[in-house]
Amino acid sequence: MQKWNILFLSSWYPNSELPLNGNFVQQHVQAVALYSNVFVLHVQSRQQENPFELEYKVTHSVHEILVYYSVGNPFLKFAHHVKALFIGFNKIQELVQGKKIDITHLNVMLPLGWFAYYLKWRKGIPYIITEHHSKYLKISKQKLKWHEKLMVKVLVKKAAYVCPVSNYLKNEMIEKGFNGNYKVVPNVVNESIFNFSEQVENERCQILHVSSLDNAIKNVFGIIDAFKDLMVQTEKPLHLHVIGDGDKQKVLDYALSVGLEKDDFGVEGPKTYKEIAFAMKQSDVFVLFSNYENLPVVISESLMCGLPVIASNVGGISEMISSQNGVLIQPKNHSELTREMLKFVENQYDFNKKLIAVKAKEIYSFEVVGKTFFEIYKSVKF
Questions:
Q1: Which of 123, 87, 127 is nearest to 106 (CA)?
Q2: Which of 178, 203, 333, 373 is the most buried (most CB within 10 A)?
Q3: pLDDT digits (tens, 9 = 90+) for 109-133
Q4: What residues have CB less than 8 Å from 213, skipping those under 6 apart?
Q5: CA geometry: angle at 156 spanning 153 and 162, to 5°?
Q6: What domains does the chain contain, in order, with CATH numbers?
Q7: Residue 382: its pLDDT value, please?
Q8: pLDDT value of residue 156
């Protein structure tokens, strides 16, 4: 099977300034690398003495080129942004050793999309788009500016394929007039980390929540309220485990303010993938009570571990949850959340955790998603 040279041009990508930025894009990269030669290009502004600093490394056979540029006045910052992209692309041309880039895989159109368009116009390199951004959703507080709408409309029209991570995002983009050749490809999960293992029975029912802890989006306080009510409705021992990379002190203070005891719950800061997977494998149910979402990676990670999910029916979550792997509830209805958690505690659900993991692997694994993208690349080339 011939391997193409794929340029992953990504507006979001983990870097020294934002270590978790676009980590789900990095997972897509690793999936694509199973079938293609991948060169990642990402640029990031930061305070530094030199105008430009290039960082090059090879990780899991992926060539990552990150170019950092110094900040200044808005005009100088934009000029440095543009030059950083060309510095990075020139490095990639050195690495391919006289061969060509076959396809640009643009991840998150704004703000780097113009460069994918430039490469198509100037060098004849076709591009596809993977889009994750929630600002295309009607419910999102972030709105596209007029010039962003114009750029997105052109980028979508000229792309060989547009691959939103959910049908929900696809439909919202089309509704906004961004018409193109769409094919939904979901986020991917590293099955070497997130996988099924037989769970030892817990002394207390373990309820897990993992998120950014942004209450306006994730409604973490609503989970705590529902959990507090749950403790009144059952005599069985319970424990709420919250993990996140946001303001954990605010969550801790709120839990204590509504009367939870420190032994009833735990709030922890950012964890590695392996640590999150371990927590999932030790839990009985995962809860996500968001006010709005796109396609939460944390749900697919839970399912890959065989962990059933209770989640609010927003965004693309209904595309992930069925009667075989979890329960959908209405957002902001914390009494419904309490009722569904109680059913788990009282063993009224009988989910086959191993089957949940098997089905999830058929959708979210590196092999499946990577092959899907490879087939897309082939159709673009031929």
A1: 127
A2: 373
A3: 999 999 999 999 999 999 999 999 9
A4: 220, 242, 244, 245, 246, 247, 248, 250, 251
A5: 150
A6: 5-188+365-381 (3.40.50.2000), 205-363 (3.40.50.2000)
A7: 72
A8: 98
CA geometry: angle 196, 239, 221, nearest 5 deg:
105
Residue 49 C-alpha from the chain's centroid: 33
Radius of gyration of the chain (CA): 22
CB 284 within 8 Å of CB 353? no
Burial 266-291 (b: 16+ CB within 10 A, else e): ebeeeeeeeebbebbbbbbbbbbbbb
Query: Which residues does 116 contact at the CB level (< 8 Å), separation at least 6?
Result: 9, 104, 106, 127, 129, 155
Evaluate whether 129 touches 162 at the Cβ level (below 8 Å).
yes
| pLDDT exceeds 80 at position 277 | yes
The DSSP bridge partners found for residue 182 are 162
**Banded model confidence at residue 74, pLDDT cuts 50, 70, 90:** confident
User: Please, which pLDDT band fits residue 166 given cuts at 50, 70 and 90?
Assistant: very high
- pTM equals 0.92
More confident residue, 10 or 141: 10
| One-letter identity of residue 368 | V
Whether a cis peptide bond, with omega within 30° of 0, leads into 111 is: yes
Element (H, E) at 190: none
Residues 6 or more apart whose CB falls under 8 angstroms from that of 184 comprise 163, 164, 165, 166, 167, 170
- Going by their DSSP bridges, the two strands 37-46 and 103-107 should be labelled as unpaired
Whether 182 shows a pLDDT value over 70: the answer reads: yes
CA–CA dist 20, 248 (Å, integer): 17
Between β-strands 52-59 and 62-70, what pairing exists: parallel, antiparallel or unpaired? Answer: antiparallel
Side-chain half-sphere of 127: how many Cα atoms within 13 Å? 32
* Both tokens assigned to 118: 């430039």
Q: Which two tokens stand for residue 87?
A: 């510095």
